[in-house]
Structures are given as structure tokens and as C-alpha cells.
Design goal:
This protein is α+β, with helices and mostly antiparallel strands. The chain is built from 5 helices and 5 strands. The chain has one domain.
């Protein structure tokens, strides 16, 4: 399942999507948990009793601000979260 976390406002849409099927047997040792400097990822048990990752609730309302250090206006080559998640489960909408 693709789960989307975030919001949209007058300035744009800010969502992180997680392909939770890839989290169930994570091939990266749940590297996302350590990689994010804001520690916004968390393991939860979903409705199917699978352990997957989500974005912590408070971060879902402040993603643009929380991720700004990883996304300087001058540009960036990669993000800690997507680089750490070698299965490719994490995507950003902006
Ligand atoms: S590293 Fe990627 S696949 Fe593994 S638990 Fe984190 S988000 Fe899921
Ligand atoms: S861009 Fe940075 S702060 Fe945002 S989720 Fe990824 S690692 Fe965390």
C-alpha cells in the first residue's frame, strides 16, 4: 500500500509517500529510522498486523519546514531518507 503523509497549503503540496509493502521485510535494516535528522519516521503496526513505517503525526503538519535543512534552495543531490531507503519505499512530492 502507498501511504501518504503531509498536507497542502497556499504554497504547495507537501507529502511523503511510503510504499509500506517494502517495509514489511525491509531489505535496508530500517535504515530510515537512523537516517532522518528529524527522526520523523517511526515503526507502527498497521491494520493488517504488519510492522511498517509512518511519518510521526506532528511532522505531518510541518513537513516543508522539517525537511528544509535537507532541501536547501540552492539544490541538493540526494536526501538522507531516500538514500538510506535502498528498497525505494520513500518518495517526496516536492
Ligand atoms: S528503509 Fe525504507 S523500506 Fe525500510 S523500513 Fe524504512 S521506509 Fe521502509
Ligand atoms: S528530507 Fe531530511 S528531514 Fe525530511 S524526511 Fe528526509 S531525511 Fe528526514
Amino acid at each position: 500500500m502507498i501511504a501518504n503523509y503531509g498536507y497542502k497549503d497556499g504554497s504547495g503540496e507537501y507529502y511523503i509517500s511510503i510504499d509500506t509493502d517494502k517495509c514489511i521485510d525491509c531489505a535496508a535494516g530500517r535504515a530510515c529510522l537512523e537516517a532522518c535528522p528529524k527522526q520523523m519516521f517511526e515503526v507502527i503496526t498497521d491494520d493488517y498486523d504488519d510492522e511498517v513505517i509512518w511519518v510521526k503525526k506532528p511532522n505531518c503538519r510541518t513537513l516543508a519546514y522539517d525537511c528544509s535543512a535537507c532541501k536547501p534552495a540552492a539544490g541538493y543531490a540526494s536526501l538522507p531518507c531516500t538514500a538510506a531507503c535502498t528498497p525505494g519505499a520513500i518518495k517526496h512530492s516536492w
